[in-house]
Amino acid sequence: MELKFILEKAANEGLALTFDDVRLQTGYSKVMPDDVNVESRFSRNVKLKIPIVSAAMDTVSESKLAIELAKLGGIGVIHRSLSIKDQVFHVKRVKHHLNGLVEKPICVYEDENISSIITKREEKGYAFNSFPVLNREEKLVGIISSNDFEFCGDSSLTAKDIMSTELLTAQEGLSLDNAYHLMQKEKKKVLPLVNQNMEIKGMYVFSDVKRIKTRSAENYNVDNKGQLRVAAAVGTGDEAIERADALCDANVDVIVIDTAHGDSESVLQTLKEIKEKHEVDVVVGNVSIGESARRLAEAGADGIKIGQGPGSICTTRIIAGIGRPQLSAIYDCAKAVEKFDIPICADGGLRVSGDIPIAIAAGADCVMMGSMLAGTEESPGNIIFSQGRQWKGYRGMGSLGAMEKNKSSRERYLQKDEEKNKLIPEGVEGLVPYKGKLKDVVFQYVGGLRRGMGYVGAASIKELKEKGQFDRITSAGFSESHPHDIEVTIDSPNYSFKK
């Protein structure tokens, strides 16, 4: 990794810097901002179309936001303040939202009544309405579609009573291209794949296949089966292994060992056990020292999360007196694990879009956002009206409310066995302004990144890491960076500042 003069100089002087301490230097550019490539990685084998990851927080990342973020090119990390069953439910909702080939279609039996099928669909949160119908010998006998449900006037009828038996089927192993042409030709929306015994072995859904073929899903972050990518958080110990087992069965793309102090024996042991049991990428966090990052890399981590105490709702640095300003933490950790070729995720401390290119130039491959995604329409929670504005709740996983409610939050901050009246919170909770749709918010964030890359002359994330150099600025330089000598009367969609 090319030495960053300002960050290296600060380190030699025993100083640690964060985003507001620096600005990127401009350079000769041959690229326009809209032409730069912002693709990156979250883990060793999991790519990103945009370098944005949602934080594993109960006011940020559940399936609704994870679906939208994956469609925008990023990835969401489903938080672990859920039962194992509920966390798996959210992962499955993401994985089932868009499918090229559905390897294990959700089927119903011909003697099931419609009311029980509808109840199951609602309980599981399925976003689809087409089900292969099997007899009790597990043979395919029909298909129920959304039209069949819509025109069924008696929910006591069975699947056999309303299903379509005029099936278009194909042998297992049919390619996506051939499936697309066959379904187009026969005007069928569902194509079950069967073996010689009419046992179902997979299924194509035309709407999803069409998105892939016509490239309307070109910017989606999908796996090699055409399913949206999603990550999920676990803790440490036996419960983490049980949770990881269930998540891997649900085809999660990345397991994130999510702790406040990633450089600990329990984390290293949990990482080892998960890697021994499953062929899944494991991202580990959080750390802020190069030596800690190197230890995790040597233990087999496929990605490392950097950040201890920089979050807007985190009080760890004040309560515990530890933590490192985020920019120096990113630089030190990235430099320490460069030879391992694993991505670094900058977790926390970002407030504006301009912090993203700064984080990446310091060595990050992607950024994890909490407060910057909280308050969007897709984040969990209801809109609150107060003081003439719309708000949504946002809290740190180390806040008293989160720790009282969730054992996993207590565990994350090394207090899982403490009584509720003896908890030491390391976070706060409050309100953030309602931001609107995620796609509009992320458009501005990625737009800021693109413009930063254009000014530097970096055509890719890799080039930004190589070319990005910093000036250290004073408080006067920081003030000069913001609008001044004006009363702002019209809000900008990508800027707000409170002193």
Summarize the structure in words:
By secondary structure, the protein is an alpha/beta fold. It is 35% helix and 17% strand. The chain is built from 19 helices and 22 strands. The protein has an eight-stranded parallel barrel with strand order 4-5-13-14-15-16-17-18, surrounded by seven helices. The radius of gyration is 24 Å and the shape is globular. The mean pLDDT is 91.
Strand order of the largest sheet: 4-5-13-14-15-16-17-18
Count the strands?
22
Largest sheet: 8 strands, parallel, barrel
Low-confidence stretches: none
**Percent of residues in helical segments?**
25-40%
Distance between the first and last residues' Cα: 35 Å
User: Helix tally?
Assistant: 19
Rounded mean pLDDT score: 91
Q: Radius of gyration over alpha carbons?
A: 24 Å
Write the layout of secondary structure elements.
Elements: H1 5-12, E1 22-24, E2 40-41, E3 47-48, E4 52-54, H2 63-72, E5 75-78, H3 84-97, E6 101-102, E7 108-109, H4 114-124, E8 131-134, E9 140-144, H5 146-150, H6 159-162, E10 170-171, H7 176-186, E11 190-194, E12 200-205, H8 206-213, E13 231-234, H9 237-249, E14 254-258, H10 265-277, E15 281-287, H11 290-298, E16 303-306, H12 316-319, H13 326-336, E17 344-347, H14 355-361, E18 366-369, E19 384-386, E20 389-395, H15 400-405, H16 407-412, E21 429-433, H17 438-456, H18 461-467, E22 470-472, H19 475-481
Parallel strand pairs: 4-5, 4-18, 5-13, 7-8, 10-11, 13-14, 14-15, 15-16, 16-17, 17-18
Antiparallel strand pairs: 1-22, 2-3, 6-12, 8-9, 11-12, 19-20, 20-21
Helix pairs in contact: 2-3, 3-9, 7-8, 9-10, 11-13, 14-17
